Amino acid sequence: MDSSILSSQGPRLAPTEKRSGSILSLGVMVAALGYFVDIYDLVLFSVVRISSLKSIGISGQALVDQGALLLNVQMFGMLLGGVAWGVIGDKRGRLSILFGSIILYSLANVANAFATSLTEFLILRFIAGVGLAGELGAGITLVAERLSTSQRGQGAALVAGFGVLGAVAANLVAEQLDWRSAYLVGGAMGLALLVLRYRALESGLFRSLKSSRPAISRGNFVSLFTRRERFVRYISCILVGLPLWYVVGILITFSPEFAKLLGVGGAISAGRSVMFSYLGFTLALYFGLHGASEPVFYGVCFLLGLTGGYWAVLLMMSAEQFGTNLRATVATTVPNFIRGALIPVTIFFQMCKPVLGMIGSAALTGFVALVIAAVALSQLDETCHRSLDFLEE
């Protein structure tokens, strides 16, 4: 599709302020810290899955089955939360997402520290998922709208690069503390970040839209599906990210089980697998690890994360694809729909397991995800130098 189509979808806005070229502004730093806490809380369950579930009486194969269920419940919460927070962000402002989401998932994680049954886990992971859904999209939207065109990519890279260190922190905290204390640390960090957010400023583009075009439809999620061209843009942004959460949700989360099947020497920790994966943040290498040593296994996890570094580019590109009156809705729902796509990916993986085995099923699932992502990417245009002061009709 031609980029001129996108920029002519509606009248342009006159921003109320000059967009700064500095990627070290308070808004970018707050977004980066927010993503740090977001990733910490998001991957913490993968890190402490075995120890936390064992403490409430779950063992054996149920550690995999119930672990997958809890992960899917959290992802389902993120699906619903992504839509809700995105609409709120386009109707009431980007900062409203940042305040509301961080309060919800921080309190949910504090409560999770006191969970004593699978039912409580399910409820709290769902609530946490709803809260987590708003953090990244709101941060990326603010960065996209506050930075100059030439600095947007660097701003997204800074947010994502610093943010993924939250996965490293989750593993280090979990190695030093028990799983309940690790959840308390996550909740405390979120509430502390809330204080910093009181100094953050709203997007100038959003303020301009709200004051100059008060009657225009904002945050209309349904409109993403009413025009074929707009729907293709939207669904392609989601599908391009499919391989990322296949890696995190299947290969990394269940790395201890894969390591045993591959005959990897030593006891593999899911937490360390997550840490090395996010530090790098390829497929054939993973499934060729028969008899490998523990350091080699973690090294491949690092490479898996390294190849997933396009996450930051994908999120910024998604925000750049759509007008100001739909930008927060898109930027918030896309990463959560990508994460939520882990539900059908996990179901497909589980369905193929009885026939192909755990390793064969994971390999086929990864291949399908990569093919779908490649086709979706072919439907998107370059947006690097696109001005964002336009509206969707």
Question: Could you describe the 3D structure shown?
Answer:
- The chain is mainly α.
- The protein has one domain: Growth Hormone, Chain: A, CATH 1.20.1250.
- It is built from 19 helices and no strands.
- It is globular and about 60 Å long.
- The chain starts with a helix and ends in a 16-residue tail after the last helix.
Sum up the structure in keywords.
393 residues, globular, Growth Hormone, Chain: A
Corresponding CATH superfamily: MFS general substrate transporter like domains
How many independent structural domains? 1
Provide a count of the helices: 19
The CATH class designation is Mainly Alpha
- The CATH architecture assignment turns out to be Up-down Bundle
Number of strands: 0
Proportion in β-strands: under 5%
Task: Report the sheet with the most strands, covering strand number, pairing sense and barrel closure.
Answer: none
Computed CA radius of gyration, to the nearest angstrom: 20 Å
The shape, in one word, is globular
Please trace the helix and strand order, writing H or E for each element: HHHHHHHHHHHHHHHHHHH
From the helix content, strand content and strand pairing, which structural class follows? mainly alpha
Uncertain segments = 1-9
Distance between the terminal alpha carbons, to the nearest Å? 17 Å
CATH topology, by name, is Growth Hormone, Chain: A
Can you give the helix content as a percent range? over 70%
Average pLDDT score: 80
